[in-house]
Design goal:
Layout lengths: L13 E10 L2 E8 L3 E6 L2 H10 L10 H14 L17 H10 L8 E2 H7 L6 H9 L12 E2 L13 H11 L4 E2 L2 E2 L1
Parallel strand pairs: 4-5
Antiparallel strand pairs: 1-2, 2-3, 6-7
Length: 186
């Protein structure tokens, strides 16, 4: 029997989490470490409860500290007040290329899209479009790292690993004023 050994530089130690049940794109959870926002992902209440249990993580005070700031910025985004997030991110445990791809993705402006190949180029490896796609598929901080703004070279939405899949990606793009028709950016 073969197995794959995964080595990461540092494991992110999460300190608190919160749940937002009612965004236009569905419910989501987020978690912070001492270094910054470490997780933001779409899930239902049961998924959130399992996440808390799996990480032995308490719910944090949604009104204070980094957790409160992150919650506030997410609400501002969905209320059309915020176009750019301003939060420290904890990307510990990511490979160097994934870290570059995630940071470059975070720089894509509100209401704009780029292709996976452009993202790979910006991350320093123009031949790594598939690896850039892998970084987006494993994005630990959705919205703040707006992987929904990355599309295929054919302008197709292609893959979105959050619940709701391409439908959720389309909702986020439309929220930012991007026209989507038949799972393509027009």
């Amino acid at each position: 029997m073969a197995f794959k050994l995964m080595i990461t530089k540092t494991k992110t130690e999460l300190v608190a989490a919160a749940f937002i049940p009612d965004t236009p794109a569905g419910s989501l959870a987020l978690a912070v470490s001492k270094k910054g926002l470490a997780r933001l992902f779409f899930c239902d209440r049961d998924g959130y409860i399992h996440f808390l249990a799996d990480h032995d993580l308490p719910e944090g005070d949604p009104k204070t500290g980094l957790l409160g700031e992150a919650l506030g910025q997410v609400h501002e985004y969905f209320n059309d007040v915020r176009k750019k997030f301003d939060l420290p991110m904890d990307l510990d445990g990511q490979s160097p290329f994934r870290t570059k791809a995630l940071r470059e993705c975070a720089r894509i402006p509100f209401g704009q899209t780029i292709t996976y190949s452009t993202l790979a180029l910006r991350a320093g490896n123009p031949k790594a479009a598939r690896a850039a796609g892998g970084a987006m598929a494993n994005n630990p901080i959705a919205l703040v790292i707006p992987c929904h703004r990355v599309v295929g070279s054919d302008r197709g939405l292609h893959g979105f690993s959050s619940p709701g899949g391409l439908g959720t990606k389309a909702i986020l793009l439309r929220h930012e004023g991007i026209m989507v028709k038949e799972e393509k950016v027009v």
